[in-house]
Write a structure and sequence with these properties.
Blueprint (H helix, E strand, L loop, with lengths): L1 H24 L7 H5 L11 E5 L1 H6 L2 H8 L3 E5 L5 H14 L4 E5 L1 H5 L11 H5 L6 H11 L3 H7 L3 H4 L8 H5 L36 H16 L3 E5 L17 H17 L5 E4 L27 H23 L10 H16 L6
Parallel strand pairs: 1-2, 1-3, 3-4, 4-5
Helix pairs in contact: 4-14, 4-15, 5-8, 5-12
Length: about 350
């Protein structure tokens, strides 16, 4: 009995030490890692609307406004340069804990980053480090790594990638060493820069498919949402089209969006009516984003700043409510079960105030 107790105590101490050390050294960027970590802190079965995509999502889809103005319980499950194979596995991960009724998928990533993109593995730390280990995560890593052994060596296990952050530790890391409550974090990370950009313009009627891998995972996302009774709303968060992401490669994002429009039309012809594509660039004036003065855009990649996120989210919420009604996207304001969204609004309000911007 003494031996058994000693063994159990040893295992407990080791497991606790590993957990505390992992929490201490784990990176907690708001470019994907915290978006993953916070999934596991959300109150069960409260996320009605899931938003997937790149940094355009966590800069542009304002979950605080969705809640404060509409009572929509939404979560931005985004990451830097998120690919469709990551979106697919994020969708599956979220559905382990939540039952989203509407999935909003931003299509910028597959339109802009093709197979010959030099930096396709650059942001994998933001993609991987926040997700719990599981069969789903293993499958996602296989999809991300393209069979390259060096990627497994760098990113698996995740602890190998951030165990030497001794000189980067901050006070918040120490506070979270024993775990953290991220329930009020909903993925949205407002930015407050101002930079002038060109108005987006569709320059071609030609349709070009994204990579074969992207097409494969888009179909997997469609199949998953159809099988699980989820409405799939594909959009493009406004930005300046065809800005060069890599020297020597022509973006042609508008040609990819033209292809997507045809792809969704074919789904409708097949009787799949649960998938919708809002080709925002074809009616960009309805959204009211001011690109040229820089009032609504934060940087040269035309990420929406806080003001831009308010405008786009107001448009998005109106379209979603008109399309799906309160049956799929109810107004939960005043429901104690959703109090973490009230706290979320206050946290975003504080960020806006600290930046010296006006709350909208």
């Amino acid at each position: 009995m003494k031996t058994l107790i000693a063994t159990l105590l040893s295992v407990t101490v080791i497991a606790t030490s590993v957990s505390v050390t992992d929490n201490l050294f784990k990176e907690k960027s708001e470019s994907g890692i915290k978006q993953c970590l916070a999934v596991y802190s959300q109150p069960e079965d409260t996320v009605d609307m899931l938003v997937l995509g790149t940094s355009h999502v966590h800069c542009g889809v304002n979950t605080a406004k969705l809640w404060s103005d509409y009572g929509i319980a939404a979560y931005d499950y985004s990451s830097a340069e998120q690919s469709l194979w990551v979106s697919y596995h994020y969708l599956r991960e979220m559905c382990k804990y939540q039952k989203p009724k509407v999935v909003v998928l931003d299509f910028f990533g597959p339109a802009a980053f093709l197979d010959n993109y030099d930096y396709k593995y650059h942001f994998l730390d933001d993609t991987l480090y926040g997700m719990k280990f599981s069969a789903n995560k293993l499958e996602m890593m296989r999809a991300c790594f393209d069979g390259k052994v060096e990627n497994w060596d760098k990113f698996f296990p995740s602890y190998a990638g951030y165990h030497d952050r001794y000189d980067q530790l901050e006070e918040k890391d120490l506070k979270e060493a024993w775990g953290a409550d991220y329930s009020s974090f909903k993925g949205f990370t407002p930015i407050f820069g101002n930079q002038e950009n060109s108005n987006p313009m569709i320059t071609t009627d030609e349709a070009k498919a994204p990579s074969d891998k992207s097409v494969k995972y888009l179909q997997k996302i469609v199949d998953y949402t159809v099988d699980n009774g989820i409405e799939l709303y594909i959009t493009v968060i406004p930005y300046t089209l065809n800005v060069t992401q890599q020297e020597g490669i022509v973006q042609e994002e508008d040609a990819r969006y033209n292809w997507l429009e045809g792809y969704v039309n074919k789904l409708h012809e097949q009787g799949i009516g649960s998938v919708y594509f809002d080709y925002t660039f074809k009616h960009i004036g309805d959204i009211g984003i001011d690109f040229e003065s820089g009032a609504d855009t934060a940087d040269g990649n035309s990420h929406l700043n806080y003001n831009g996120s308010v405008k786009f989210t107001g448009y998005l919420a109106g379209d979603l409510r008109n399309r799906y009604g309160t049956e799929l996207l109810p107004d939960h304001r005043g429901d104690e079960k959703y109090s973490s969204w009230d706290k979320h609004v206050e946290e975003i309000r504080q960020k806006v105030s600290e930046a010296g911007w006006e709350w909208k």
